[in-house]
Design brief:
The complex is a heterodimer of chains A (319) and B (455). Chain A is α/β, with parallel strands linked by helices. Chain A has helices at 10-33, 41-53, 58-73, 83-101, 127-140, 157-168, 181-195, 212-228, 247-259, 277-285, 306-314; strands at 115-120, 145-150, 171-173, 199-204, 235-241, 263-267, 289-293, 301-303. Helices cover 50% and strands 13% of the residues of chain A. In chain A, helix 10 links the parallel strand 6 and strand 7. In chain A, helix 1 runs antiparallel to helix 2 and helix 4 (83-101) runs antiparallel to helix 11 (306-314). The longest helix of chain A is centred in the N-terminal third of the chain and has 24 residues, at 10-33. In chain B, helix 1 packs antiparallel against helix 2 (24-40), helix 2 (24-40) packs across helix 4 (70-85) and helix 17 crosses helix 18 (408-432). Chain B starts with a helix and ends in a 12-residue tail after the last helix. Chain B contains 19 helices and 8 strands. Chains A and B meet through helix 2, helix 6 and helix 9 of A and helix 2, helix 6 and helix 9 of B. The complex binds guanosine-5'-diphosphate and magnesium ion (MG). Magnesium ion (MG) binds at residues 127-128, 151, 157, 203, 206 of chain A.
């Protein structure tokens, strides 16, 4: 919103973003274990509630707690103070496995020209805003960026995107509202090839994963892209709102199936929602989280790091 | 993905044999699954805890319906309680005595405020109102243009001042315009904001202070998880919500956030958004969402079937009584109650093939008050009298009249009606009251009809 932030370091901003989360969880966990000499079953139950409250979901929450319980039973864990570390480790392991399992797609990788990134997701998750942030990021890196306005459905979607294009200093290709999104992709890629643009960012209309005609439209858009540029779209990223609950898992499943999603962007982590459903998503589908959104300003997008993320939640005392 | 809840549920409860009433053992086993269902539906964990405790208390010692297993019985109780907590029936918006009625739309980013503002304007104008729209979202790129396009496509008026960057000024000017031009509703679309953003929450407070909205509606995404409790309670605390609009219900989210929202806001959910088109707004139906949250569709339909069976059994029993001429005054009273639910008897009988308009049936139409009197009269009879109406002589009639506080003539009239009805039923039962016909009747569903004459 108001543009009055001084530049903060990457880590400071990440910390600020997860501060609420961390204080919250940390506070709760410490309340639970504070002053207790022994680990009691109630402690573990309370911890499970804390995880469920973060949208982590019953199945992973109880699994993590169960593993911890076993450690307690086998006397590998006796000190209530170490409970937190144990849970941190379990959660981190889930994220790390997925980050490793999936090859990191990279713009600087084998030069496809142009490198095409497409953002998909349900309505209102932050696709357009994130696309503006991404454009700015790549422009700052010295890449040339072309924005493709393939949301031809929502009222004023093109106007919204063009503001972001201007802010980022990127070119944009669009058609009149109500047009055919595949046609916009066709035009954009032709222009990008002609101009030798490094990166094309495709904004798409929000759609519920339950609407099969709209999901098929995504498939078609992908086919058109592929016909224009080999391997395109090189990255399809699902933009997921951190406030989303367990439905996020089904969203991921459907967008992976129809749009070949290969990575996640989690937005609105500057609120109090934890986005815990990503644990189920990365576990189930082994796709990495690429970026997180931490505000509405153009530089409020940071690269995702499992360590920093989980550490931000669980580690280090409050300063 | 989610294990099939219903299957697991039935597995858990299979071994529990009916004991006539629900025991703690039944309830505990069922509650475990219910808790899981609610959590997987995104109901906040604390709300789940409260809810489960309440249901547990309610369920304990309840009689088990014959056609239901104890587990199904618990689900039935949970389902009914869910409907109750979600608000029971439908709620609508209110209007202020002094127009314009200001509706303030608030919520997190991306929840659907702008689209919903347009939908609401359309809805209200179809109800004969004259709404004026205005967007106070001076922050998000092209937010105001979005609402303009929506208003234009609806052919509804909007107040615009593209150069004005102060939401309060915009609100004041729109309010003035509404007053001067005689719009009776002003819908204020606002910027999405985080509940922890003090600056923007204060702005909302100021907008509210300036415009005195009669409705302050939280627009909330039905896919929201546990955070719903936190965000909604902050919004409620700061601006005092009068209702909730639940969006994106055309997806497949179970929508448990609704329960959390009701819990912290305590105000009704007034509408549901069910699509991107501007006509995709409908009243909120608690019963539909209750079934969806529980996610035990097959168990619920089993229960419904069982309930139908019970009704059918009751109806058959009644038919049998009629056939054997055992239809007594107590049955008469029950049937009158049913008629009240179903509508006038002549209409119902008119639907039966082979029966034309029946003379004299109009006399059987009764209103609420009359029914109360009938009940009072029948209640003043002894059980013996109720089964043997012919013993009710003049002396007894006087006593019954005194006991019920009704004139003797009314007692006489009632007894005559009863005898008429009994006669009529007797003649009908031979030809029409067969099971096949009752089946046919079931096909036509009468609203609110339960265990009536014909099932
Ligand atoms: N607080 C916050 N808001 C965001 C973030 N990303 C997007 N938004 C807001 O979410 C709303 C919807 O964003 P938009 O990009 O239009 O979503 P789209 O429909 O998916 O394209 C807008 O009000 C954005 O400003 C974020 O990381 N944090
Ligand atoms: Mg968009």
């Amino acid at each position: 919103m108001a543009d009055k932030t001084e530049k903060k370091s990457f880590f400071q901003r990440l910390k600020a973003a997860v501060q609420g989360t961390r204080d919250n969880l940390l506070g709760k966990i410490e309340n639970i274990v504070l002053g207790k000499k022994e680990i009691s079953p109630e402690m573990l139950d309370d911890l499970e509630a804390v995880l469920i409250g973060a949208d982590i979901g019953v199945s992973i929450a109880s699994e993590v707690i169960e593993k911890t319980r076993q450690k307690v039973d086998r006397k590998l864990l006796c000190d209530p103070d170490h409970l937190r570390e144990s849970i941190r480790q379990e959660l981190l392991a889930i994220l790390l496995e997925a980050q490793k399992a999936a090859p990191q797609a990279s713009v600087s990788g084998p030069a496809a020209s142009p490198w095409v990134i497409m953002l998909v997701g349900v309505n209102g998750t932050g696709k357009t805003t994130t696309l503006g942030k991404l454009a700015n990021r790549y422009m700052t890196d010295g890449k040339s960026v072309l924005i493709c306005a393939a949301d031809t459905f929502r009222a004023a979607a093109v106007e919204q995107l063009s503001v972001w294009a201007r802010r980022a200093g990127a070119d944009m290709v669009h058609q009149s509202s109500g047009g055919n999104p595949s046609a916009v992709i066709f035009d954009s890629l032709q222009a990008a090839v002609a101009r030798k643009t490094d990166i094309v960012l495709v904004d798409t209309a929000g759609r519920l994963h339950t609407k099969s005609n709209l999901m098929q439209e995504l498939e078609k858009m992908k086919r058109i892209a592929e016909r224009q540029v080999r391997g395109a779209p090189h990255e399809v990223l699902l933009v997921l709102d951190a406030t989303t609950g367990q439905n996020g898992l089904i969203q991921a499943k459907e967008f992976i199936k129809s749009a070949g999603v290969g990575g996640l962007i989690v937005t609105k982590l500057d609120g109090t929602a934890k986005g815990g459903v990503v644990f189920s998503i990365v576990r189930e589908f082994r796709i990495p989280i690429r970026f997180v959104g931490i505000g509405e300003k153009i530089d409020d997008l940071i690269e995702f790091s499992p360590e920093a993320f989980v550490d931000g939640i669980f580690l280090s005392g409050r300063e | 993905m989610f294990e099939n809840l219903s299957k697991r549920f039935q597995k858990v409860l299979k071994d529990l044999k009916g004991e006539g009433h629900l025991t703690p053992r039944h309830i505990e086993a069922a509650m475990k699954e219910v808790r899981l269902a609610l959590l997987e539906a995104d109901v906040h964990f604390k709300v789940v805890k409260d809810f489960v405790a309440r249901v547990q208390e309610k369920a304990l010692g309840q009689d088990v319906m014959l056609s239901l297993s104890p587990g199904q019985q618990v689900v039935r109780i949970v389902h009914q309680e869910l409907i109750e907590v979600l608000g029971g029936g439908q709620a609508s918006v209110t209007f202020s005595k002094q127009p314009p009625s200001v509706f303030l739309m608030v919520g997190l980013q991306g929840s659907g405020k702008t689209t919903t503002s347009g939908k609401l304007a359309r809805f209200l104008s179809q109800e004969g109102h004259h709404p004026l729209l205005v967007s106070l979202d001076v922050y998000r790129p092209a937010a105001r243009q979005q609402l303009s396009i929506i208003a234009e496509s609806l052919g509804l008026p909007i107040y615009e001042a593209p150069q004005e960057m102060n939401p309060l000024v915009l609100a004041r000017e729109a309010l003035e315009l509404a007053r001067n031009k005689g719009y009776d509703v002003l819908i204020l679309d606002t910027a999405g904001r985080l509940h922890i953003n003090d600056e923007l929450m204060n702005e909302l407070e100021q907008i509210k202070g300036l415009t005195h909205p009669v409705e302050t509606l939280l627009v909330a995404d039905s896919m929201t998880g546990q955070d719903a409790v936190k965000s909604a309670s902050e919004f409620h605390e700061k601006v005092g919500l009068t209702g909730v609009i639940l969006t994106k219900l055309d997806g497949d989210a179970r929508g448990g956030a609704a329960l959390s929202l009701r819990h912290v806001v305590g105000q009704p959910i007034k509408f549901a958004g069910i699509g991107e088109k501007l006509d995709a707004l409908e009243p909120f139906y608690p019963d539909r969402l209750a079934g969806r949250i529980l996610g035990m569709g097959d168990v619920l339909s089993l229960i419904e079937k069982a309930e139908q069976t019970i009704e059918e059994e009751k109806a058959l029993e009644m038919a049998e009584k009629i056939r054997r001429n055992e239809f007594d005054l107590e049955d008469f009273r029950d049937q009158l109650r049913q008629i009240r639910k179903m509508g006038p008897l002549d209409q119902i009988l008119g639907m039966l093939p082979g029966i034309g308009p029946l003379k004299g049936l109009n006399k059987l139409q009764i209103d609420e008050k009359e029914l109360l009197h009938v009940e009072a009269i029948i209640n003043s009879m002894t059980p013996y009298e109720r089964c043997n109406h012919h013993v009710i002589n003049g002396h007894r009639r006087k006593r019954i009249a005194m006991g019920s506080g009704r004139p003797v003539q009314e007692v006489n009239r009632l007894l005559k009606q009863y005898v008429d009805m009994k006669k009529m039923l007797k003649t009908m039962s031979g030809s029409f009251m067969g099971k096949a016909l009752m089946k046919k009747m079931k096909g036509r569903s009468f609203p609110g009809m339960g265990g009536g004459f014909f099932g």
